[in-house]
Amino acid sequence: MMEEKVAIIEALIFASDTPLTAERLAEVLPGTDKKEITALFGALCREYEQRGGGICLQEVAGGFQYRTRADLAPWVRKLKAGRPAMLSPAALETLAVVAYRQPLVKAEIDRIRGVDVSGALKGLLEKKLVRIVGRKDVPGKPIIYGTTRKFLEVFNLRDLSELPTLRELKDLQE
Amino acid sequence: MSYEIKLDIFEGPLDLLLYLIRKNEIDIYNIPIALITAQYLAYLDIMRSLNLDLAGEYLVLASTLIHIKSRLLLPPAEEEGEEEEGEDPRAELVQQLLEYQAFKEAALRLENRPLLERDVFTRGAREEGPSVAEGEGEAMIEVGVFELVAAFRRIVAGLDRPEELEIDAEKISLADRINEIMERLSEKRQLTFVELIGEKHDRRRIIYTFLAVLELMKLRMIRAYQSGPFGAIRLFLAVEDQ
């Protein structure tokens, strides 16, 4: 029974466009409780780990997804022809500030980076790595920004808590 | 001369300041303001000599540095109970620098993660990226003013030295150049910067073309892409007319 369910999960993750979440899985496989689902995911993960093939089962953005092994990237890139669109240092810095300090307003990002981040922020919004979360209830009602689910997917993060901790300011002295 | 290469790697005034601190191997908690201010201003001069429109933020930080320097020169306040007494006028700036540095490092760590579509791939993931590069087989990066300035300098450097002192009958205006560029772009869909300047390599024409391109980018009527450092800069219409 366990093996059959693991096979079902494998099929579902394979067929899913986005990382398959435990909630979604519970809808498709009624009668399985949270604990069992975690155990099933775990069993499947171990299978892939033991196999050591080109595909890894990874937990990203709150769900599970098959991804190619990172060290095989040169071959996959060759297949896909073309270099990946990279983020500029300005965009990355802006994204880091949003990721660690969200939810926050643009003025706060400007202050931290010491430059006007309008352009970088616009690019991140277009790439759907950052989204508008709401408006702050102060004069001018400035827009509040936060990161998206796609951000977690692109940066291979389970959730925001997986972000490496920002070095404490007092530790920065080298 | 080595300064010029460094210019386009600064992400802003704080970045420039951090670079100077590192270069001089200075303790960030004990910044020699006079030295750093002098070097900082020297960099601003170089940027100005390149005729780059200095972002206002650079000037704000310059004035902050000078303000701190002047406060350091003043004797400590006499009156007791002064709020600022004993406080290092550099403290606020140091705090800001440390915070910025922390995020700069965080950005690097983010970039070093196994990125989707760069290091790891999902099953048959759709390609996103800018679709403008079709048929080119190379990924394009949108370029900014720095890359354009670099291209401009390369072209000017390639000019034959003895410039003909000829009073050209052809009067070029910026508006004419803008119209011409828009016309040619809607015809050809994309042009490289070099193609745009064309055969006639006279200084005036190059400068006007450069100014026209900058103006059009500012108005968001065209976009500039580059396939890599020193690659050809291609210009596209921002909005294709249907």
Ordered list of secondary-structure elements with their pairings:
The complex is a heterodimer of chains A (174) and B (242).
Chain A: H1 2-15, E1 20-21, H2 22-28, H3 34-51, E2 55-60, E3 63-68, H4 73-80, H5 89-101, E4 104-105, H6 106-113, H7 118-126, E5 130-135, E6 143-147, H8 149-154
Antiparallel strand pairs in A: 1-3, 2-3, 4-6, 5-6
Chain B: H1 3-7, H2 13-23, H3 33-49, H4 56-73, H5 91-111, E1 141-142, H6 145-157, H7 174-188, E2 190-192, H8 193-197, H9 203-218, E3 222-226, E4 233-237
Antiparallel strand pairs in B: 1-3, 2-4, 3-4
Structure description:
The complex is a heterodimer of chains A (174) and B (242). Chain A is α+β, with helices and mostly antiparallel strands and 174 residues long. Chain A has helices at residues 2-15, 22-28, 34-51, 73-80, 89-101, 106-113, 118-126, 149-154; strands at 20-21, 55-60, 63-68, 104-105, 130-135, 143-147. Chain A contains eight helices and six strands, in the order H-E-H-H-E-E-H-H-E-H-H-E-E-H. In chain A, the strands form two sheets. A three-stranded antiparallel β-sheet of chain A has the order 1-3-2. A three-stranded antiparallel β-sheet of chain A has the order 4-6-5. In chain A, helix 5 packs across helix 7. Chain A starts with a helix and ends in a 20-residue tail after the last helix. Mean pLDDT of chain A is 89; it is low at 169-174. By secondary structure, chain B is of the alpha+beta class. Chain B folds into two domains: 3-77 and 85-111, no CATH class; 131-237, Structural maintenance of chromosome 1. Chain E (Arc Repressor Mutant, subunit A, Orthogonal Bundle). Chain B has nine helices and four strands, in the order αααααβααβααββ. In chain B, strands 1-3-4-2 form a four-stranded antiparallel β-sheet. The two termini of chain B are 47 Å apart. At the A-B interface, strand 3, helix 4, helix 5 and helix 6 of A face helix 2 and helix 5 of B.
